[in-house]
Amino acid sequence: MRTELCEKLGIEYPIFAFTHCRDVVVAVSKAGGIGVLGAVGFTPEQLKAELDWIDEQIGDLPYGVDIVIPQKYEGMGDTSPEELEKQLWSMVPEEHIAFAQKLLADHGVPEWPDGTKSMGLLGWTEATATPLLMEALTRPKCRLIANALGTPPADKVKMIQDSGRLVGALCGKVKQVKAHKEAGLDFIVAQGGEGGGHTGDVGSIVFWPQAVAAAEGVPVLAAGGIGTGQQVLAAMALGCAGAWTGSLWLTVEEAHAEPAQKESLLKASSEDTVRSRSWTGKPCRMLKNDWTEAWAAPGNPEPLGMPLQGLVSGDGIRRTAKYASVGDCQKVAFNPVGQVVGQINQVESTRNVVFRLITEYVDALERVNSLMPEA
Amino acid sequence: MRTELCEKLGIEYPIFAFTHCRDVVVAVSKAGGIGVLGAVGFTPEQLKAELDWIDEQIGDLPYGVDIVIPQKYEGMGDTSPEELEKQLWSMVPEEHIAFAQKLLADHGVPEWPDGTKSMGLLGWTEATATPLLMEALTRPKCRLIANALGTPPADKVKMIQDSGRLVGALCGKVKQVKAHKEAGLDFIVAQGGEGGGHTGDVGSIVFWPQAVAAAEGVPVLAAGGIGTGQQVLAAMALGCAGAWTGSLWLTVEEAHAEPAQKESLLKASSEDTVRSRSWTGKPCRMLKNDWTEAWAAPGNPEPLGMPLQGLVSGDGIRRTAKYASVGDCQKVAFNPVGQVVGQINQVESTRNVVFRLITEYVDALERVNSLMPEA
Question: Does the keyword Transferase apply (chains A, B) (predicted)?
């Protein structure tokens, strides 16, 4: 299943692994795919440290970095991160903060030891994302940049391509595929509604081929619902140039996660996820729990838009991650994951997952070939 | 792509076409697949007439009949259709009837010429479905029976199998697959959330392989999101034994439908469908319109369960079908269809659709094979 993107990136298999863990990035690239580090949760200093480690461990292999630069968001136009954040805070109703804090308290989520809140903006605006991008562009082995949400601004596309790297972006609708193609992106990640994180609601089996058609030759990577080699083959059958996987890497041996969080994921069925705006302000698929139910219940505050809801939920994201195994933390924790979570029931090494994908792919292709009259 | 089910049914391709139109049934079987007539909208007398016609036209080829026998429904236990219906009517709030009738009136949907309402129960209970099944079992060329909703009762499974026919049923959840397998069904139709009509919310790409695993060797037909041969190949890659298609046949040349209804379908995108309980009482995917929006809006009556909501909506189903092109009928019409509707933009002959599926399948398989190192 070697495609043109493999040649351009110098990788063996078109398996793109989105992860927040540097160890997984390195292990996937070493197994013949390519690891893509999700940078949104890091400060520029933290990202520098992560990339230093990756550069040291990965040998001569390539990797990617995924950032989030929305094209439009409330408060857009301001440039200094500090000023922007101040202005955004003024748009958040007290009621929302109180509701979020009460949910956390009711579930026994510990406060920070020093009594502070950690309500800072995540890297979900151009102002906060740009320093992350600049850091990534200093790394010769970082060969691709992906934007997790929307078409990147033209100046960023040019900057990335002029540096000799590939730039792509995620999407869940045909009109977004067209916008990505217009912007001259090098690849497009088409995510069906099954997928974890920000997602549309058209299913992969329907959306992937529509994306391939709309991309008019720009390679499309299939996302949303890929956890086995059979699913990779389905994506290739539908004209995709590779697989963009995320959920698959949350529970591997190398993934940094609290045991309680891994446990939540390993025991979840495909019916246990929901698309909810309760964490980021945009529809995002995650494990269903008390937090998602509370923000959907009539009479309770409705989630704000992006990035305002992120200000409301940011403290909860950090506290439930830090204290994942304490009290009922998991019932109000942010666990973005796709429906494919139902297939993932045991911890595997990253290397094994990549090899399993390939073996399953080859076996499935053989089986399909055997159904043809000549066989 | 010949599978065991093909042998058992004496068909060329494992393409199962669910349709309410007898002409489509015959044309699909003649093209090498198998047509399956949806019987739920017919009285036993009407079904007799349809099957007479099919038997006359189809030569020696096989076909199937699809019925709806829910295992559980409100009012279950009553047996006489008349008594059951009377009892069910007593459970329907006046408010719901008034709300439905006002929606129809507000959109200029004509009343019946004689001023009557046609509010009768559709064949959605065991009492109403049994006579339909008995009629189908008198036809030697009817080689399969499918239950559109839930595992058929054990006595019906036995009756069908003892008659030498295959029996199967649809489902959208793994636990339903297991129930079907336990009941000894001959095949299981696994429908992803993309599909039209009654559907769960797990996407096809995730649900199909889970269904195949849970079916433990019972053949699984893939439903939900199949409109091209590439999508059939994706289903086969995921271990399915064939494709169960529905939306694809709504707009073919042979399909009986008012021009306005075909037009609504041909121009719809994949984002124009919604899962709604507003017609049948169970989540069912259909074109989004004023009717579905009204029943979802806060403050309005909430849809009742099955089959009560069918009593509320039955008159609307029949009037909007009869007067499909009048006034704003399409805005309150029942148009069950899957997300694949976005791929269907032109009228084709049934025969061409079947041949297109096969050609696309073969081409896609060749392309995938060409990506392997040996090629």
Answer: no
B258: nearest Cα among B164, B208, B321, B308? B321
| Maximum distance among all Cα pairs of chain A, rounded to whole angstroms | 72
Contacts of A343 in chain B (CB under 8 A): 206, 209-210
Direct distance between the N- and C-terminal alpha carbons of chain A, in angstroms, rounded to an integer: 21
Given a cut of 60, whether residue A290 has pLDDT beyond it is: yes
Contacts of B224 in chain A (CB under 8 A): 203, 205
- CA A338 vs. chain centroid, Å, equals 10
CB contact under 8 A, B270 and A207: yes
The residue in chain A having the minimum alpha-carbon distance to the alpha carbon of residue B193 is: A203
Distance CA A317, CA A310 (A): 9
Burial of B326 (0-12, 13-18, 19+ CB in 10 A): middle
Q: Residues A18-42: pLDDT tens digits?
A: 999 999 999 999 999 999 999 988 8
Whether A205 and B234 lie within 8 Å, measured CB to CB: yes
> Do residues B37 and B64 make contact, with C-beta atoms less than 8 angstroms apart?
yes
**What backbone torsions phi and psi does residue B220 show, to the nearest 5 degrees?**
-110, 125
What is the DSSP secondary-structure string of B141-205? TEEEEEESSSPPPHHHHHHHHHTT-EEEEEESSHHHHHHHHHTT-SEEEEE-TTSSEE--SS-HH
Which residues of chain A make contact with B343, given a CB cutoff of 8 A?
Answer: 206, 209-210
| Tokens at A281, concatenated | 């302000």
- CB spacing of A209 vs B224 below 8 angstroms: no
Identify the pLDDT of residue B115: 72
Instruction: Count residue pairs from A and B with Cβ separation < 8 A.
Output: 152
Task: Set out the domains of chain A in order of their start, with CATH numbers.
Answer: 4-73+128-254+345-370 (3.20.20.70), 81-122+272-332 (no CATH)
